[in-house]
Design a protein that fits this description.
It contains 8 helices and 9 strands. The protein is an alpha/beta fold.
Length: about 325
């Protein structure tokens, strides 16, 4: 009888221990599921706050266009510094930049005008080459000509190597082979896989270049180009030095030039040639903008990058990217 009682006690203790273990595991599993659901809800709320930033920016851009339909400049509300805006359980902030204040890499795909020579290039290619030549201490093993030509080859619609560029036969011979796009860039980050464009080169070049999805236009807004981008302005204008470009930006009125002729007059004072007048690569208005939005909700940070087009009184989202910096 004592032996049976002892065995029964051991069995009872085992069952109690097993039940306690199962209960603990169920509690832990429930806590994990609750935390996952909370994280998902927080993430979704931060995401919707970012979408709200998009709508607000659309309205600000459209209002600026309505107030000043003929020009875009850095004195308008969209160009204000990034300021956190309080929302329930968090903050919302964003920064808007003009995508026509940088070199649209997709413009390199445009065929050269009035020439049958395949070695002739377009203004965007020439500007990229000048940028690469004039950026100090460019850390690349490739020549500036080879790098600019390789970008042209990446974009063009054939597999014939352009001058000192690189086509798919060179990329296919790499340890990890891949084909050239032979199409437009979707993101400026694609430069990283083109010959010569290592991370250090990208870091030095990114302040001057950008990508407008699906667009090959080269139209630089002289009212929104920043002082630190003066090198781009000098790369686009024959005879204009970097110091001359800085002087033009410094002399620009607070609300920008009222006409492109006013800009050309100031450029001529700084020694720039007037050859670019016929190419129409400068403007005082803009149709493409980039929003970098940050939403903070219950210590959860969500980032959204949007490309916005203003056209015919409407604002449209051309591309979105989640995350990143």
């Amino acid at each position: 009888m004592r032996s049976q009682r002892g065995a029964a006690l051991v069995i009872v203790l085992f069952i109690v221990a097993l039940a306690a273990t199962i209960a603990t595991e169920m509690t832990m599993s429930l806590m994990v599921q609750v935390q996952k659901a909370t994280n998902l809800q927080t993430h979704q709320q931060a995401k919707w706050y970012s979408y709200g930033a998009e709508e607000l920016v659309k309205k600000v851009l459209l209002d600026s266009r309505k107030d000043e339909p003929d020009k875009v400049h850095l004195g308008q509300p969209w160009a204000l510094e990034e300021v956190p805006y309080p929302v329930d359980h968090g903050t919302l902030s964003g920064q808007i930049t003009d995508l026509q204040a940088c070199l649209n890499l997709n413009a390199l795909r445009v065929k050269a005008k009035n020439t049958g020579s395949r070695n002739e290039t377009n203004p965007a290619h020439k500007a990229l080459l000048e940028l690469l030549k004039n950026i100090e201490d460019l850390p690349s093993e490739e020549s500036e000509e080879a790098m600019a030509d390789s970008v042209y080859d990446w974009l063009d619609d054939d597999s014939i190597t352009f001058r000192s560029g690189a086509e798919e036969d060179e990329y296919m011979s790499l340890r990890t082979p891949y084909l050239t796009a032979n199409n437009l860039f979707a993101s400026v980050s694609e430069l990283r896989i083109i010959k010569g464009f290592n991370p250090l080169v990208m870091e030095k070049l990114l302040p001057y270049v950008c990508v407008i999805p699906g667009n090959t236009e080269l139209a630089i807004n002289v009212n929104t180009i920043q002082p630190e981008q003066a090198l781009l302005l000098s790369a686009l204008m024959e005879g204009l030095s970097q110091s001359g470009a800085e002087a033009i930006i410094s002399a620009r009125p607070e609300k920008g030039f009222d006409s492109i002729q006013e800009f050309y007059a100031e450029a001529a004072n700084q020694g720039a040639s007037d050859k670019q007048k016929n190419e129409k690569i400068f403007t005082i208005s803009s149709n493409y903008f980039k929003l970098r939005a940050k939403a903070q909700f219950d210590e959860r940070l969500f980032r959204l990058t949007s490309i916005i087009e203003i056209k015919e009184g409407r604002a449209s989202i051309l591309a979105r990217k989640f995350g990143g910096v």
